[in-house]
Amino acid sequence: MTTGVQRRGWLDVAELGSVWGIRFMVRLCRLFGRGAARAFLRVVVFYYVLFARTGRRASQQYFARLGEQAGFATVYRHFCTFAEVALDRLLIAGGERSLFEVTSNGREHLDELTRSRRGALLIGAHLGSFEAMRLGAVTQQLPVNMVVNFSNAKHIQSVLEQLDPQANARFISVEGGAVDFVLKIRECIERGEMVAILADRVGTDARVAEVDFLGAKAQLAAGPFILAAALRCPVYLTFGLYRGGTRYDLYCEPFADAIELPRKGRAEALQATVQRFATRLEAYVRKAPYNWFNFYDFWRDR
After folding, report:
1. Residues 215, 60: Cα–Cα separation, whole Å
2. Given CA atoms 198, 199, 200, 203 in this order, what sign does their dihedral have?
3. Fewest CB within a 10 Å sphere: which of 14, 40, 104, 214?
4. What pLDDT is recorded for position 204?
């Protein structure tokens, strides 16, 4: 188990688009509809992929891990999927929730948590749509809070706050300091609420676990699992996969009733836990390969 002192990875990747550009897309949707905005996005993405060497290489590396050779068309489709999901995120935040068809697989687990007023951690990844997960929670009236990190996405944070000011009440920012956000998570769990957190990316100086993922060694965040062990709460895996058109499939499955990290053999137990998460994450990646939205060198030597 190590810390990511030199590992910035995704934090080095600047967000795409300005506040003006993001607002323009929202207005385009409202004036001419989602189809027109998606068509415009495809043109923008085409030029981006032409010149975004780092992102293009990361996409090709990812598909190579899946055993596929990724030419320009594959990479272009990958980035188009990301852009379309990002656009839908803005539409959902702006209240256009009726546009989308959302199916739930494993909803009974969340319903039972709500009925029993038992808090839980919902662990996911940058796979598909975080916002679709929140849409499912709102539609089903589930008390779900989202841990967010807008370190390299200040522009989209600004627009989301304007589109949906009430969403901030359910956001827990990691930027306020580790002690502050951990206390907020504990308070939510003690109130019998759910807290969703993503565990694929690693921040500076964060605890990591090295795992086998898509046939190679990768580092995943260990912090969410350490937190779960400290809170002694149930853990579920949750993913919102984009299936094209207006359809999103939400998945929820039990991961652990409680994560145990004994003093003796703690590092080994933690690594085994994160590896189990990596194995399930890989299964969902293979369900919807174009939903993987980590456009940096995920498997690089660190």
Report:
1. 15
2. positive
3. 14
4. 60
How confident is the model over 49-108, as pLDDT tens digits?
Answer: 999 898 999 999 999 999 998 999 999 999 999 999 988 888 887 777 788 898 989 989
- How far apart (Å, rounded) are the C-alpha atoms in residues 171 and 238? 17
CB 272 within 8 A of CB 262: no
Q: Does the CA dihedral 283-253-275-240 come out positive or negative? A: positive
**Residues for the chain: how many in total?**
302
Parallel, antiparallel or unpaired: strands 207-213 and 216-221: antiparallel
d(C-alpha 221, C-alpha 204), whole Å: 11
Please state at what angle helix 223-231 crosses helix 266-287, rounded to 10 degrees: 120
What integer pLDDT is reported at residue 6 of this predicted model? 38
Pick from 32-41, 46-55, 293-302: least confident = 293-302
Tens digits of residue pLDDT in 159-181: 556 555 555 447 787 766 667 78
What is the C-alpha separation between 165 and 237, in angstroms, rounded? 27
**Is the Cβ–Cβ distance between 195 and 119 less than 8 Å?**
yes
Measured CA to CA, the distance from residue 48 to residue 259 in angstroms comes to: 42
Query: Phi/psi of residue 184, each to 5°?
Result: -65, -40
pLDDT the model gives residue 182: 87
Taking the whole predicted model, whether its pTM rises above 0.85 is answered as yes
